[in-house]
Amino acid sequence: MEAVEKMIRERRTRGLQAYPEDFLQHLLMEEDRKSCEDEGLSLSDEQIKDNILTMIIAGQDTTASAITWMGKHLDENQEVLDTLKAEQLSLAERSSSKSFLKLEDLNDMPYASKVVKESLRMASIVPWFPRLALEDCEIHGYKIKKGWNVNIDARSLHLDPTLYNDPDKFMPSRFSDESKANCFLAFGQGRRTCLGMNLARAMMLVFLHRLVTTYR
Ligand code: HEM
What we know:
Helix content is 55%, strand content 7%. The chain has helices at 2-14, 23-37, 45-76, 78-94, 103-106, 110-123, 154-158, 197-214; strands at residues 128-132, 137-139, 142-144, 149-153. Helix 3 (45-76) crosses helix 6 (110-123). Protoporphyrin IX containing FE is lined by residues 54, 58-59, 62-63, 66, 120, 125-126, 129, 186-188, 192, 194-196, 199-200.
């Protein structure tokens, strides 16, 4: 937070135009604009810092860990790696653009998508997420009181043998069958579903493509 504060101070002192047009820049610009137009709606420095921290933790750390786990699982599962490699090399042959993947290429990676999903299931990067009960309620016979913290235990769901056969086995093909509802919570669910879900998936697919088509 101190580092972000320092950056904000520096940018304000030197002027925003001296810096690249990045996310922080936009929050600072937005703040100036809003505070003139509509006092009360502008972002406070606290909120700007919170947003930057969210991007670092929610956006950067999560994807980096997910990619690391994916590398480990591929290394330990030669058959999966071979199937993935065959799909990606064939895509590289077909792709109209040889050096850069396009969005339509990402939609043409059925097996890699399953590798991504299976890695996310096994790693459960966000293992649980908290909720605060806003009123007394009852869920499946469990009485929950207003003010209680309830943690949604995604990891237990992801490793539940009644939902996933052989849950400790890395098996991307398990996602070929129609999946049951509410069993995959890697990106959460409902109103607070991950905002960066599609970006994260895209980054993981691009990473897989580069890894298996470029390295042995
Ligand atoms: C593999 C990578 C990622 C995983 C596993 C992941 C997981 C999650 C989960 C489980 C939640 C819901 C938490 C809850 O319900 O309390 C969430 C929320 C969120 N994620 Fe991600 N995420 C990933 C990547 C990203 C990226 C790349 C970004 C942004 C660039 C991002 C931004 C956010 C934000 C802003 C929220 C809060 C949404 C809200 O509360 O309305 N995430 N993420």
